[in-house]
């Protein structure tokens, strides 16, 4: 890997502490960092190199999955760290930074390859990019890359404005937009699953698949982020980015050699084929919810409107469920159901592919008894890929029973999403970063939904905390003859489903 100077804006912040330093450390332990690697942390706080290193060390101790590592190795890792006070608005601070970067490159005798990671609020992206350009930091002889964190805009227009401004300083191929769901090991395996298995490739279409369900449920509420979340809601916080990215990754027909540009081109094609919604019709495909008081794992929790910092009459969405259709030859007629919510019964992030009914057999009871085949890509609470198939129940002669096969047994030490993503950015591999085309098309699809919410054309359903959201989200599937898989309430409510659910959980 080429020598790199990693310039981190927002080095004193929460994301750096909880995700970036632990990820860098894990990469260091796995020998996945460049041999010559230098990190320059920036913030307004008057830290020194020494206090910066102390903070980084603490973050490793608190958040790395390699906490117990030998102190000598930790110390070796920390030697790469330097700190410089920088106020985003002060031109002269960028000159000081340039000198430090050049000094480090000379000390290490390395080419000026510079990765600028903006772990700061999005309101600063444009300013920092322009300063990098003007100060000369971005015009050395090596490569330059810009890594940015969501949100990439607040709606279609603001996203376009932001992109236009960034593109004055960085070319599209130099911009790495992090969507941490793309770094999740199981999302990455989804690509490999298709790419390397002709049997999966062959059935990855509307001939064999009845519907696709994408769930990202959380038990947490708004927490300390009221100022941000009450203006954003589930639709912007999760749906526009993470969930549409999962939809794209599921619906692409993965090219046999998945070069970044090919994968991203296929994702763009999926977004272009996504049937658009008209503002007036949003209510028939989208369910909007907001959590009420309830209990999570036995503990009482308050109504969203009673959360500190939330406007008393807020109409913000904390839950969204949607039915989407992709109008292309592979997916025409296959509904994609997507949902995400806060204060749900359990943390569960998964993609379920439900295959069509088995072919008609001579005895009709076969079809009645057999559960659908399912492919489950589970990201949380466990990371696994499962295939549900039917077999004979040896205890109840003549009956069928669904069994679940773990497709990656014994493989449980997965890298964190940020590890994979930072490693890819260092390599210059943009496959698992969001291209501007995808971001723009996602905002374009979501825009009528934002407007329909704004104009209250979509009812806001209250749901008790600790449930699976409003009943209307179940009805969205029920009207098509489906239900959400693996919601544990089915165990209580539907005897016919009970065996399937227990069978699944028993194998977990
Ligand atoms: N935290 C998380 O889990 C996630 C965060 N994100 C995104 O990552 C970004 C950073 O978030 P987070 O770390 O939580 O935010 P924090 O508020 O914890 O940190 C903000 C950072 O920005 C720096 N900063 C703010 N203003 C200035 C300025 N004028 N000049 C120089 N530095 C400045 C702060 O440094 P100092 O105070 O020293 O000036 C601090 O290091 C945001 O875009 C957020 O949306 C995305 C996903 C998850
Ligand atoms: O980006 C975000 O994601 C988290 C959920 O991420 P996960 O990896 O734990 O599933 C969400 O809590 C947060 O609101 C959102 O900004």
TrEMBL record:
Reactions catalysed according to its record: D-glucose 6-phosphate + NADP(+) = 6-phospho-D-glucono-1,5-lactone + NADPH + H(+)
- Keyword line: Carbohydrate metabolism, Glucose metabolism, NADP, Oxidoreductase
The answer to whether UniProt assigns keyword NADP to this entry is yes
| Residue positions binding NADP(+) | 10-17, 44, 87-88, 150
**Gene3D superfamilies attached to this UniProt entry:** Dihydrodipicolinate Reductase, domain 2 (3.30.360.10), NAD(P)-binding Rossmann-like Domain (3.40.50.720)
Q: Which family does it belong to?
A: Belongs to the glucose-6-phosphate dehydrogenase family.
Question: What protein name is recorded for this chain?
Answer: Glucose-6-phosphate 1-dehydrogenase
Q: Which organism is it from?
A: Paenibacillus harenae
